[in-house]
Amino acid sequence: MERLEKFQIIFNNPTATYCVGDTVYGYGWVIIKEPLFVQSVCLEAVGEAKVEWMTSSDIQASDEEVFNYTTVLPIKSDKGCDEDLLNPGSHYFPFEFTLPSKLPSSFKGKHGRLRYFVRMTICTPGGPHHERTSKFAVISSLDLNAEPDAALPVESDTFEVIGSLCCISGTVTAHIKLPKKGYTVKEAIPVWAEIKNLSTRRINSTRVSLIQNVTFYSFRGRFSESSVLVTIHKGGIAPRGKQTWQKELLSIPTVPPSHLKGCKIIDIQYNLELCIKPSGLGRKVKIPLDIIIGTVPLQSTNQQRASYHPLPSIVSENNCPFPFFENVSDQIMLTEYSFQQQLLPTAPPWEEDDDIP
């Protein structure tokens, strides 16, 4: 690498976040200190999923490639020089590729992840080859209008005894309902609930939580993990008392859509859970409700779109350069404005020292 002063991959989107169907524009920026003879410049864009967990007897793992685009980029040397001889100074290797419409979202969990990255390799005769890798994030699409139950209300109730086996305190009844099953990221879920404490024991607290349930698959088994994403709390309930939730709002954070369609080894589901915690000994009372999180809302309307030039502007040669692409419009419609503002990736672009293969 002693001949290269800089080797960097730059995307047209400063956040390196794209929606399915978008065209990804970018370029490799190389500053050469000495003349360099180049055989080829190869570009590979990859989407891969990997899972791994430990059992009592061994380690189970699996991987899947969900996207691969490979091409050889043209080499533009200075006039009057051999075609593949690069003189000292800055050189740019533009690239573009379109993301398929059925790619799964980027995701990162404790026992698995799905990530996308671009790898550029400058091949020189006799080596060494110079390589740089940079990650980008993908947001998949899940249209709630195509989900059969998304518009239907959901509800559940329970009737449970609280207390220990030797000291029964009475019963608790609870009912929770939602106006529909399908929601989008950043949407607020209105929660209706009624809890009756028919026991002689005080209820310390009640809460409703949004839970992400992830299942990882290998050739020999599967492993599931759950995590609480956001919670809203209510106060306690006195003995023989009642508590009512009237359209309490729970906002959905930035998460990948349900199902993670397009990936066979990772599945994501969501549910809302009402949890009632009695005082003293005794287990908590829990009521789960399955929900669907998508990217296209029910009966969606056209939203404002944002456009900007495919590359940031140049200030000086030492800053981010601005080579214009051929046959590319000055204004590129990248994605929905709401996606740029709301659907930030769950697995953000990594730093240079991350474990990129």
UniProtKB/TrEMBL annotation:
InterPro entries in the record: Arrestin-like_C (IPR014752), Arrestin-like_N (IPR011021), Arrestin_C-like (IPR011022), Arrestin_domain-protein (IPR050357), Ig_E-set (IPR014756)
One CC-aspect GO term: cytoplasm
Source superkingdom: Eukaryota
SMART domains: Arrestin_C (SM01017)
GO biological process terms held by the UniProt record: protein transport
Residues of the Arrestin C-terminal-like domain: 168-298
PANTHER family: ARRESTIN DOMAIN CONTAINING PROTEIN (PTHR11188), FI21816P1 (PTHR11188:SF17)
Family: Belongs to the arrestin family.
Protein name from the UniProt record: Arrestin C-terminal-like domain-containing protein
Protein species of origin: Potamilus streckersoni
